[in-house]
Amino acid sequence: MQLKKFLWLLSVLFISTTISIAQEMNCPVMVETIIDTVDDSCAGLGLNEACYGNQLVDAQDFNEEPVSDFQNSGDTVGITTISSLSTADFDVTNDTWGIALLSLQADLPDTLPGQSVTIVVFGDAQLRNQVIPEDQLVSTLPATSTGAINVRGGAGTNFEIVRTLANGEVITLIGRNAAGDWVQIESDAGEAWVFASLLTIDGDLARLPISGESANSEYTAPMQAFQLQTGIGQPACAEVPPSGILVQAPTETTVHFLVNGVQVEVGSTAFLQTNNTAVTVNTLDGMVTVTSAGETQAVEPGYQVTASADRAPTEPDDYDFDALRYLPVSLLPERIGIPVLVRANNTWRDTGIAVDAGDTFILRTGGIINFWDFCETQKVANGQPDIDCNSLLLGPAGGDPLTLTGEVLGSDMTLFPVFDAPPHSLVARIGSSTFFVGEGGEFTAPESGTLEFRP
Fold first, then answer.
1. How many other CB atoms sit within 10 Å of the CB of residue 297?
2. Closest by alpha carbon to 124, among 286, 265, 245?
């Protein structure tokens, strides 16, 4: 990992969780019950199918009519029948939280039978399919210029200006690029393209065929290109995750999607949200690459970037673990954790993972780790004389994550330190009990509390 900041990344995989209701509302119980229901109802979902997980979910076909036989939990339909899919926000009063599961091939090769990409849509979220079946395409659409607009020889500002549209000029659209942000207009003077948002278009832009250099777009599989819109309201309670979609590719594969005109390459698991047309991509596991406006950003676990079709991705920044810790990752086929960034700032980081006295949990680590030498001396100098140096577990630096056997009653965690980190140690505590974390190991909670870490 080539990170400039010194940090530890802990990926928290919940094996078993005891939920306590800290408020009068039924949020935690309701969330857990709904997720269990969806898990059962959508088991065995087939390739290129959508499953109605929990109410309320609304699916429209390409005639803008409700998709039949997709009204109740457990209903499944072929993904090619869906033009748009919307899920409802969490509502504790009406006992609703819209969740839908999609199983897609995307650009996975046919040589991987049984493999699929999983998308979990939940909360206030809408997907609008940008991969239109050929029989649903239109050859032209009318449009009107909203001002003096440049017409270019290709889909981008790097192409030469060939003419200028007058304000109010009526034109005919004959195609679009894969991202849908540029449209080709009818012209006798060769290729002519206009930025789509500068036009008033009469009809659904997605119904135009893809033309120009993007005619051979890689985003041709069902729902491989889509418009995403998610709500940005505050959750009803702490245990409800923000609205959005989870995307998970099978192990050791990489899949490509076009989301709001932004290229997103997922090498394991990501959580996506939007603010207007901008897409925020949070990496939960593996590696995700985001490309827009000719620039690319690699996004490692624990980080997020924001991008839009006409703006380059931002620099990776920490995502909000406290907001994402309750994402419904248990609905994904491959178990992952929610990574926690622990920085070398000498402050405690509460993971929110509750353990009871006697519970056993495992810390797995990888990469190069540098620890304090002379523990007995350094713990006093660091103001931590109560640390048990015998609990410091060391192993060979580097290599694959250390895997230990044993019954896991608490949480399975992964620790990824920075390769060029200066000498530091990672300290953990549960309640008032403090201990060193070394290369990895199995620990038993001496008392009840939440797991906290501090460099």
1. 19
2. 245
Which residue, among 65, 54, 66, has the nearest Cα to 123 in the 3D structure?
54
Write out the two tokens for 302. 């624990």
Instruction: Return d(Cα 280, Cα 261) in angstroms, integer.
Output: 13
Locate 200 and state its tokens: 């008033």
Nearest to 326 by CA among 246, 436, 228: 246
Tokens read off for 69 = 């036989």
Sign, Cα dihedral of 69, 70, 73, 79: positive
Comparing 53-67, 118-132, 169-183, 202-216, the range with the smallest average pLDDT is 202-216
Whether a cis peptide bond, with omega within 30° of 0, leads into 56 is yes
* The domain over range 24-131+220-324 is classified in CATH as 3.30.950.10: no
pTM over 0.85: no
Over the stretch 213-258, which tens digit does the pLDDT of each residue have?
Answer: 655 567 889 999 999 999 977 777 888 999 999 999 999 999 999 9
**Backbone Cα Rg of the chain:** 25
Q: Domain 134-215: state its class.
A: mainly beta
For the chain, give percent helix, strand, coil, nearest 5: 10, 40, 50
List 125's β-bridge partners, or say none: 87, 230
Q: For the chain, give every domain's residue range.
A: 24-131+220-324, 134-215, 344-454
CA 359 to chain centre: 31
Q: Which residues pair with 54 in a beta bridge?
A: 99
Q: Which of 8, 104, 110, 123 is nearest to 49 (CA)?
A: 104
The string of DSSP codes covering 274-338 is: EETTEEEEEEEES-EEEEETTEEEEE-TTEEEEEBTTBPPPPPEE--HHHHTT--GGGSSS---E
Distance between CA atoms of 233 and 273, rounded to whole angstroms?
12
Average pLDDT of the chain to the nearest whole number: 79
The CA-CA-CA angle for residues 249, 251, 253, to 5°, reads 65
Over residues 259-289, the pLDDT tens digits come to 999 999 999 999 999 998 899 999 998 899 9
Both tokens of 411, joined, read 């949480």
